[in-house]
Q: What sequence folds into this?
């Protein structure tokens, strides 16, 4: 009985932190959220969180999604998984009568023609079981079911049997089942500690007090619990500021902005000395370039950690990254949300030095239309390794493919991100930079535990600030190997291995 109560409390706390994740997005100045609700009675079976967008948020097939109904499902242990059979069990959603799919059918019947304008999201830290038909049908890019993967025309296969089982469970025909499943979306959310980190990042942007790891009391969970008991449903920015101000959660504005820098090359860095900016100079190790023997990278990581570790969490920092991509990534990983530091990069652009603070600048309204994503599966026995290719300032796909062939790198998945307007002006400012990093990170986090336990090879051509922000999120990416690109063709191959994270770092 006691264990059941603890599990319920943990599930409630997880739901309230997911709500706060969406609250921080709502009250950003350029948010695409129009309205936000919690425990909203419109669809009783999907009432945890409801997001209404100013414009259709993303496209699924040819349908525009204007509203998203989010139902959270927390699980106590990593050993639990989601299966199609679970979605037909009332107990899976803590119900005595209706299963998740039956609740989805109820929403379909209630909304009628408006059903295909909505997304119904199951938000959970669980993985989908790898031996389940859902595993190969849920798209990594948007979390929707690829109906062609299930309705493949077969008669005696496990897929065909699963279709018949769902039709019998829901008492529908093939076409109705397709309609019902077509709007279902699975989102593999972060585990609770990682969710706290994500919420803290949003709270820091808004100048709210962060959630302390040293206290057992989470004031933001307490606030959300109070709203629930008071029957409050719609969440507005004005309401949040009023509530947080009354609870003393608006951060004090007397922090000092300090400057620091890391450099791996010398050209164009005299201003660091002239402005007395505290600098970690690693240029001797890099011999004027970005190519460093793999045996020296552990020592470089230690030097960067020693330089970054003594800074005061009460200050705000600007960091000047006159360095290789890998070094920028290391710095971001050290200054991850758990560090407690409010730090943002100063980016060198064609227009000079610019502060890429993530609460300044313009927002990409529909990032899926700006940053093209493609997942290619390459069935390769004996490996679950992945390749991540990010082309922002240059299109590096050909160079990466050539390197992979020459080095004989085997992998099972190739995940590509390419900006539609590749070049030095592709990313305009810090907010767009963070938004792209968050988008890429969310897709990497959504992968299965098996994929994260394998190695992810990372190839990037982008502003170094993007590597810094990706580094901030990277603690949950799993095992990583980064590469440096020889843009100037000064070496005998296009890429060189740089820093790696193989666990426990």
A:
């Amino acid at each position: 009985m006691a264990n059941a109560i603890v599990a319920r409390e943990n599930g409630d706390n997880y739901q309230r932190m997911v709500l706060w994740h969406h609250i921080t997005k709502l009250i950003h100045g350029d948010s695409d959220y129009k309205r936000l609700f919690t425990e909203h009675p419109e669809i009783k079976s999907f009432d945890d969180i409801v997001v209404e967008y100013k414009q259709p948020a993303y496209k699924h097939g040819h349908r525009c999604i204007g509203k998203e109904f989010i139902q959270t499902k927390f699980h106590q242990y990593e050993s639990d998984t989601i299966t199609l059979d679970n979605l037909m069990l009332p107990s899976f959603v803590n119900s005595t009568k209706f299963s998740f799919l039956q609740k989805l059918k109820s929403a379909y019947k209630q909304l009628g023609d408006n059903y295909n304008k909505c997304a119904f999201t199951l938000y959970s830290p669980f993985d989908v079981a790898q031996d389940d038909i859902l595993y190969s049908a849920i798209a990594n890019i948007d979390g929707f079911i690829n109906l062609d993967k299930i309705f493949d025309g077969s008669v005696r296969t496990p897929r065909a049997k699963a279709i018949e089982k769902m039709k019998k469970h829901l008492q529908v025909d093939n076409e109705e089942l397709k309609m019902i499943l077509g709007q279902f979306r699975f989102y593999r959310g972060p585990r609770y500690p990682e969710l706290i980190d994500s919420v803290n990042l949003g709270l820091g942007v808004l100048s709210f007090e962060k959630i302390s790891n040293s206290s057992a009391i989470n004031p933001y969970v307490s606030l959300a619990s109070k709203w629930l008991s008071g029957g409050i449903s719609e969440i507005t920015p004005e309401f949040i500021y009023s509530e947080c101000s009354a609870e003393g959660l608006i951060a004090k504005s007397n922090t000092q902005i300090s400057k620091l820098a890391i450099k791996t090359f010398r050209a164009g860095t005299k201003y660091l000395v002239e402005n007395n900016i505290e600098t970690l100079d690693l240029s001797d190790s890099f011999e004027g370039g970005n190519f460093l023997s793999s045996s020296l990278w552990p020592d470089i990581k230690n030097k960067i950690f020693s330089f970054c570790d003594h800074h005061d969490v009460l200050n705000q920092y600007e960091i000047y990254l006159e360095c290789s991509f890998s070094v920028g990534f290391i710095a971001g990983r050290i200054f991850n949300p758990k560090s407690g530091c409010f730090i943002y990069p100063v980016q060198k652009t064609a227009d000079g030095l610019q502060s890429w603070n993530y609460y300044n600048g313009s927002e990409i309204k529909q990032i899926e239309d700006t940053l093209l994503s493609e997942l290619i599966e390459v069935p390769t026995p004996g490996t679950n390794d992945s390749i991540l290719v990010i082309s922002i300032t240059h299109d590096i796909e050909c160079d990466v493919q050539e390197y992979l062939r020459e080095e004989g790198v085997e992998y099972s998945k190739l995940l590509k991100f390419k900006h539609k307007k590749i070049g030095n002006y592709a990313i305009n400012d810090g907010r767009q930079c963070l938004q792209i990093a968050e988008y890429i990170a969310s897709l990497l986090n959504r992968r299965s535990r098996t994929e994260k336990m394998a190695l992810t090879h990372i190839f990037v051509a982008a502003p170094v600030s993007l590597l810094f922000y990706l580094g901030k999120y990277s603690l949950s990416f799993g095992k990583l190997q980064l590469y440096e690109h020889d843009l100037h063709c000064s070496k005998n191959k296009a890429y060189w291995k740089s820093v790696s994270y193989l666990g426990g770092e």
User: Anything to note?
Assistant: The chain has four domains: 2-188, 192-246, 257-355, 367-501.
